[in-house]
Amino acid sequence: MVLKWLCMLEWARDDVSNVAGELALLSGLVMWATTYPGIRRKMFELFFYTHHLYILFMVFFIFHVGISFACLMLPGFYLFLVDRFLRFLQSRQRVRLVSARILPCDTVELNFSKNPRLSYNPMSILYINVPRISGLQWHPFTITSNSNLEPEKLSVVVKSDGSWTRKLHQMLSSPSSIDRLEVSVEGPYGPASTHFTRHDQLVMISGGSGITPFISIIRELIFASNTSQYKTPEVILVCAFKNSSELAMLDLLLPISGSPSDISKLQLKIEAFVTREKGPATDNSTAPRAIWFNPHATDAPVSAILGPKSWLWLGAIISSSFIIFLIIIGLITGYYIYPIDQNTEGGFPLALRSFLNMLVICICIAMTASAAVLWNKKQNARDDKQIQNVEGSTPAGSPQSWLYKADRELESVPHQSLFQAVNVHYGERPDLKKILFECKGSSVGVLASGPKMMRHEIANICSSGLADNLHFESISFTW
Fold first, then answer.
1. Beta strands in 215-327 (DSSP E)
2. Exposure string over 454-476, b if 16+ CB within 10 A, otherwise e
3. Which positions fall inside the FAD-binding FR-type domain (predicted)?
């Protein structure tokens, strides 16, 4: 019995290490235990932080099996290290937050300065970190802006629906508003292509804040309808809200600098349903307002970490770092490891061999990735000089006057084309079956974003076989 315990605690010099395997197993079990839906959804921070144990898991796993056997998973592990280091480099840069649009439904639109060379597709997401709230928490949000319609601006919508988002909303909506907010980002990340334009008719059904991915789609279609790139489909937006204050989310369909001509060429029909109120609210004292932030010399526009030709740079980083790794590890093996293997009883320690390989891999990736990022950072700096910084778009005067002028600007922007497309229904829920079966296009794309039950109901309608022209796609951001 004692011998068995001693074997479990053995760290062999030139053989499999039992202790390393046990530590790797323990790390894996802790990560696995926190993946249960009850823990993952109710205690997401616990789930998120414990999954950083993947570092210990990988290190001790390689110590346990040796570097030769670990090479079976080297391609995936190598690509992960490259991606993780690039994300780390991007997250170190503070980005320029230009303004925020505060809606009465506890929702905030954040508007960032963007490098014109950065392009992304609708329904992309951006990870955001606000050190003033938490230096460790990163939260993904749907990008609502369009890189073609707004080449120098990137926007995300944040709904107050958790401790982190509530703190952000309170910070921005408080009477003593701040003049600058430090923000870091990772991304954007999103779909590789936009397939919704292949349909003759597009029906987008949302519940609550599920409307946010559709904002970017509508802005993309607004741009396409004005540039005549391709024939845009007829769009029907069906959105359900609990209270009439949430109707302010429809203001986000147009950029803060939008004009009525932007949407006039798009065939858009909006059916908005307010389920918990029988009529329009009489209190309009909480109108949307905007606040502007002071620029800071260290802040930079949101840009692609590897520039517009990111795939070429990524290929160069992977290939060059791996070649350098093979050269360095070959030299170390020939002039350091091999002589010890030949002249020492028991040979070179297996754990030390694994450690040297991991160390050289990390150094090679860090060297090549840092060089590529620095090169693109210089290119981005040249572009940034040509961008009109916040000074050009920020109203002159005191911060209080900025609030006043921004409010006046929002009120003075004509939304006649948008308002004419909106039909508001109070005290009722949308009849989804009726709405979908009345669509007579030969190809009708049906996008659903919102509560799980709503998405399942729409999926059942589209798959019932009663209509052959419905093509369903669910958009879910649930973990």
1. 234-241, 268-274, 289-292
2. bbeebeebbeeeebebbbbeebe
3. 90-195
Give the model confidence (pLDDT) of 165-179 as tens digits.
889 888 888 877 688
Q: Out of 101-110, 192-201, 240-249, which region has the weakest mean confidence (pLDDT)? A: 192-201
Pairwise CA distance, residues 346 & 349, whole Å? 8
Return left, alpha or beta for 345; rule: phi > 0 is left, psi -120 to 50 is alpha, else beta.
beta
Whose tokens are 């949307």? That residue is 288
- Give 265: exposed, middle or buried? Use CB within 10 Å, 0-12, 13-18, 19+: middle
| C-beta of residue 100 within 8 angstroms of C-beta of residue 130 | no
Measured on CA atoms in the order 390, 395, 400, 405, is the torsion positive or negative? negative
Instruction: Give residue 287's identity as a one-letter amino acid code.
Output: A
Contact 232, 225 (CB under 8 A): yes
pLDDT of residue 365: 95
Residue 331 has pLDDT above 90, yes or no: yes
Q: Strands of 190-263 (E only): list them.
A: 201-207, 234-241
The sign of the dihedral angle between the CA atoms of 59, 65, 71, 75 is: negative
Peptide bond before residue 188 is cis, with ω within 30 degrees of 0: yes
Tokens for 345?
Answer: 């009883």
Residue type, 300: A
Q: Say if residues 185 and 127 touch (Cβ distance below 8 Å).
A: yes
Locate 126 and state its tokens: 């951006």
Question: Is residue 273 within 8 Å of 430, Cβ to Cβ?
Answer: yes
Type of residue found at 158: V
Q: How far apart are CA 188 and CA 183, in angstroms?
A: 15
The whole-angstrom distance between residue 228's C-alpha and the CA centroid of its chain comes to: 29
